[in-house]
Structure formats: structure tokens, C-alpha cells
Amino acid sequence: MPTVDKKPQQIILHVGTNDLRDHSPTVVAENIVDLAKKIEMESNAEVILSELVSRSDNVSNDAVKAVNKRLIKYCNQNDWRMIKHQNIDRNCLNKSGLHLNEKGNNIFFRNFVNALDNSSMC
How far apart are CA 118 and CA 70, in angstroms? Predict the structure, then answer.
């Protein structure tokens, strides 16, 4: 929570991908939402959720999609914006299939910039 102490106007949460190795999509999504609600309670920052990015390692993309589907639902219920990363696919991942390569990082960055420029996302 040190970021909250700096009183930002917006906080983007891009978390949860690694948690899918040990937890169900439901638990991962609920943990993300719990963190977002805690941020809202402790700050005046606008909370923006960031979709989990597809991957091609040992975590199923169905699990990633399930988390993202739940996050969209929570986003709509809590009037949060959501950054979508549907334009990031296997060609945007490094050899391990977990992290983004240069192309993926560039797209990811543009998605964040576009979200911050656009006030009507979810």
C-alpha cells in the first residue's frame, strides 16, 4: 500500500497471473477484487483493473479467461474501468510462454496508455 500514501489519482492493478499456478480462477479474481476494494477504502484513487494476459506455459488459458470474465463482472458492479489485453497473443510471449517479449511489452504499454487516455473503458 505504499503507493496509496503518495495519493495517486489512478491505480492500475495488474496482478494475479502467477497466482493461477496455486489457486482457482474464482479465488484469484476474488483476491484481486479484495485488493481493489481495500485501495478504494484507503484512498481517493480511481481503481482500474488490468486483464490477465494470455500465456502458453503450464497455466491454462481457460483459467486466464475465467479470471478475466469474473473481473469484468466485478468491474461493472463496482464502476471500475478495465484494461483489456485481447490484442496480446502467443506471438507476444517469450520462449517460456509466461512473460511478454518486446512486441508484447509494446502492446501492453499502448493498452495502458490508451486506457489512461480513455475515460470510458470496462
Answer: 22
What's the CA gap between 29 and 69, in Å, rounded? Answer: 9
Whether the Cβ atoms of residue 87 and residue 107 lie closer than 8 Å to each other: yes
Residue 107 to residues 17, 59, 85, 102: CA-CA distances in angstroms? 18, 22, 8, 9
Q: What are 37-54's pLDDT values in tens digits?
A: 999 998 999 999 999 998
Q: How many residues does the chain have?
A: 122
Residue 32 exposed, middle or buried by CB count within 10 Å (0-12, 13-18, 19+): buried
Strand partners, 93: 100
pTM of the model: 0.85
For residue 78, give the amino acid letter.
N
- pLDDT tens across 74-86, in order? 999 999 999 999 9
Closest CA to 51 of 38, 34, 64: 64
